Amino acid sequence: MSIVRIPPTLRTSTGGAKQVAITGGTVREVVAGLVAAYPALGSQLLAGDGELNRFVNAFLNDTDVRHLQALDTPVTEADTLLLLPAMAGG
Amino acid sequence: MAIQILPAGAPASTRTRIVGLRCRGCGRAEPIGLSYVCPGCFGPLEVAYDYQVVARSLTRAAIATRPPGIWRYLELLPVEATPARGLPVGSTPLLAADRLAPTLGLDRLWIKDDTRNPSLSFKDRAVAVAAARAVEFGVEALACASTGNLAGATAAAAAAVGLPSYVFIPADLETAKVDHALAYGATVVPIEGTYDDVNRLCLEIADETGWGFVNINLRPFYAEGSKTLAYEIAESLGWRSPDVIVGPVASGAMFTRIARGFEELAELGLIERRPIRFVGGQAAGCAPVATAWSAGTDVIEPVRTPDTIVRSLAIGNPADGRYVVNLANETHGSVEAIEDHVTAAAIRDVARLEGIYPETAGGVTLAAAAAAHRRGVIRPGDEVVALLTGNGLKTPDARTLGADDGAARPGRPGLAPVIRPSLAAFERWLGGVA
Predict the structure, then answer these.
(1) A51 CA to chain B: closest CA distance, Å?
(2) Fewer CB within 10 Å, N side or C side of chain B?
(3) What is the ipTM of this complex?
(4) pLDDT (tens digit per residue) in B196-207
(5) Which residue segments constitute the domains of chain A, with CATH numbers given?
(6) At what angle do helices B360-375 and B340-354 cross, to 10 degrees?
(7) DSSP β-ladder status, B18-23 and B29-30
(8) Would you state the pLDDT for residue B168?
(9) Structural domains for chain B
(10) C-beta atoms of A87 and B43 within 8 A
(11) What's the mean pLDDT when you consider all of chain A?
(12) Does B43 lie at the interface with A, CB-CB under 8 angstroms?
């Protein structure tokens, strides 16, 4: 099972859990597993087409998955997925 | 980008000016607080105003009686009253750049000189608003993720309001910017990696610390500060808008908020509504927004490893990038990518011809104006306002990129050799260069 770190904004949907363990072979499968476990996350994370909505950035071991194979990036049990709001500016 | 006027319910006299926060994505309303992400759709929260209440007191005549600074436009900022403590920010000059304009191919050029805010960049505007709210919210410290200018602005504002500050920066940031933040008493935390790495870390820790990160959990308020650039430009021009605005694009927040600022003024009847073309500039070594604009898409492909001297714009994953592309397209503007040596030459030119010394983002902006002229986006006779958002003393090494040794030679200024303090030595030297 891979670890998914949950930011504070999403924790009301995970019963306060800061991280959860989810099974899946790709980022897409882990996100799907996460939403299956916590259905309230669906409206926060997913667009209508099942992709991540445009306000969500996903990082696998601290690398933006868009620099990898996006949602099709393979995930192992040693990996950690982090979901954060898309926000930058300094 | 039309602003939303709330439906008239209660009479304006009984309503409040600041309605609350509203999600840019789904429109969901949230109360004012240290929150920045929509609990419904994860979209960014923005401040919502009741413009009918704003219009009751914000008139040209009222503004004319107020002291200089950003708080003369208080009704359009998300604070209840002018803060008791804080730095004097804004009311920077709009300067006619008649000597520089022809070198860029422009007929009429104004420079909005934001190199002379308290910490020497436009970031003082955004931070002033964020700091005012931070004090109200009772945060333990001010903090930020910074490409450099925000570091100094946050540290200076924290000093002025009496809060500790924590500034997170890429470890290889320009020394002048690091020293600047340290001078104001900040704790500076260098992070291995790019600005985007710094930003990711800060997004993860912001809500765990009790600190107010000006550009994260105070972002709805912070972002509003940049609108004051639009208000000041309009007021300086005698309450009207220019044909073209040219500015730098990093996250895209400032660029898009300037457009909103002009839109608000038109909605309130303070200026006549006229089309403004928006031209953005990015460094070619980190140009995700310019690349998307050129390709005709608003899907921003992030840049993993920025490679540019323009550190203040080196955001590879700009959150407001798609809004910048849409703004440029809707207004018939453009987003230009500028090579570093062109940026450096533009810095030298504006300093030499106008007596204004901007940091790298200013060089990008001026070069973007020339590029937009060559592209036909800026046309003969256009009145152009270029935003110089930071001071050249922050990026002292950039000016000399691609230049020769800079030594004084006959007929050309530069650094003279060391001479003895004698009339004979002076005359010998003068004889050599005159």
Answers:
(1) 13
(2) C
(3) 0.92
(4) 999 999 999 988
(5) 2-85 (3.10.20.30)
(6) 100
(7) antiparallel
(8) 97
(9) 12-76 (no CATH), 94-120+228-400 (3.40.50.1100), 123-222 (3.40.50.1100)
(10) no
(11) 89
(12) yes
